[in-house]
Amino acid sequence: MRPDDTCFPSGSRRALAPLLVALLPLAAAPLLEAQAPPMSPAAGRSTVYAPQGAIATSHPLATSAGLAVLERGGNAVDAAITAAAVLTVVEPHMTGIGGDVFALYWSAAEGRLIGLNGHGRSGSRMTREAILEAGHSSIPSRSALSVTVPGAVRAWDDLLRAHGTIGLAEALAPAIRLADEGFPVSPIVAGDWAGVEEVLGRNDGARETFLLDGERAPQAGEWFRNPDYAATLRQLAAEGPEALYGGSLGARVVEGLDELGGFVTLEDLRAHRSQWVEPISVAFRGHRLWEIPPPGQGIAALQMLRILEPFPLEAMGHNSPEYLHHLVEAKKLAYADLGRHIADPRFMEHTPEELLGDGWIERRRALIDPHEAMDRPDAGSAITESETIYLTAADREGNMISFINSVFSSFGSGVVVPGTGFHLQNRGTGFTMTPDRPNTVGPEKEPFHTIIPAFVTRTLDDGSEGPWMSYGVMGGAMQPQGHVQVLLNMILFGMDPQEAIDAPRFRHYSGLRLGIEAGVGEEVRRALTARGHEVTSIGPGAVGGAQIILRLERGWAAASDPRKDGQAGGH
């Protein structure tokens, strides 16, 4: 769990706002003066407006690195990969080269949205029988048995080769410097890190790499270095992705996993490829929300929007009992389908087109009772835990990228092959051990994925659709319900990007359990309780962290979630 805001020095977050403005050249001052809304009283920061390019990430050092790329003439992809690499150093619990990547890229030159599925499959030796023989009735999360092929490095390189202007070595340079020289750890990261000391202590490589003196997590402001990781990144910069996918680095990783009973082989790494995919979408009130197709959970956000579309949401009022009730009930129905139907597309019984079709949606919508909460319409167990970074970038040419990189749980599997400096994801826990399901664990299979970038287009005067917003909300099962809440804040209630992020969010867990952030009044909570919801108060760490870049008629607007250490910047 992340600590509450009260754990941080007074005013530490408010101090970020003037720093963001300082990033902009003086020439942008009239634009800021004319368009910036009043500073949010809840978060102490305002939307960042910029004429040329913008980037928003969950850590200031990543934003600074990406912004420097944009200022040198690099494009959105260059900035995103550079920032993502830095985040693997400064937010190691959230992300890393041992994890996976998904991206949505708006190509201004092509006038279209392009999807990249950069996740790996299960190892060729990963079977339900092998897990049972190892003495487990479920896939052990903090174990080499949960490790799947990491797709991040291949995805970074593929994006740069297809749409970037710099190479992988240049993109890795800031991350290498930070890993080698070190950096002071930021407050929210320090709190998260301390929460998994026991997990890190179970594995020799993790303990030596991520615990100071092998004993404890670094505290806020304390210096941290990872020279082993710097050496690994240097090898990738010199040899390219092949160092991991079949080369000496990959052989070292596989050898370490073999000692712990892992299922990934060197041939599995060698065979890995990213997938260029067609994004899926639904229309909503003159806009269109785009998501990555299965095995990701983005389809749940699309189902939620389709279910909610005919309801008079604006008339209900923002975060009113009626409004929240309908969003929560739509979420339950959409996540029921996730639990039962979403898996490796080769094994799914229903296509995304069927799950988003009129007949299917109408039958789901008919189950909503405006006065009473459903208990458990879900057919399968919801996955609710994930550690992820989300970032977005836009450049002067009009390119935009929505980018997400994750190791699943905090520090993933908790397994670090000694000397490599990075941990391996535990995405294998996205499978189910229940036999004969689309998502039943098996060899060389794509697991159900929680991490999802989002993108929004809008209908133009000539009837065509153009880019409008690149955004995402981190946090496991929070992500689709977060996508919908933030998007509706903007489309239905006219909030600017920072206001849309700052607004209190809910997180439905399972059954009748509903968590709501501070800022939603007691009268609303009582009315939801009367409908049968089991309402609890939750802190900012429970509802994920969001980043947004909005395309203006001229220039960009960007925002970053105060629930994280991050910031938005522009030039």
Q: How many domains comprise the coordinates? A: 1
In the CATH scheme, the class would be: Alpha Beta
Report how far the terminal alpha carbons are from each other.
Answer: 35 Å
Quantity of strands, as a count: 21
| Biggest β-sheet strands, sense, barrel | 7 strands, antiparallel
Would you write up a description of this structure?
- The protein has 571 residues and is an alpha+beta fold.
- It has one domain (58-556): Gamma-glutamyltranspeptidase, small (S) subunit (Glutamine Phosphoribosylpyrophosphate, subunit 1, domain 1), CATH 3.60.20.40.
- 35% of the residues lie in helices and 18% in strands.
- It contains 21 helices and 21 strands.
- The strands form five sheets. Strands 1-20-19-15-14-9-8 form a seven-stranded antiparallel β-sheet. It has a seven-stranded antiparallel β-sheet with strand order 7-4-3-11-10-2-21. The chain has a three-stranded mixed β-sheet with strand order 16-17-18.
- Helix 4 runs parallel beside helix 7 (168-181), helix 7 (168-181) runs antiparallel to helix 11 (227-239) and helix 14 (298-308) packs across helix 19 (478-491).
- The chain starts with 15 loop residues before the first helix and ends with a strand.
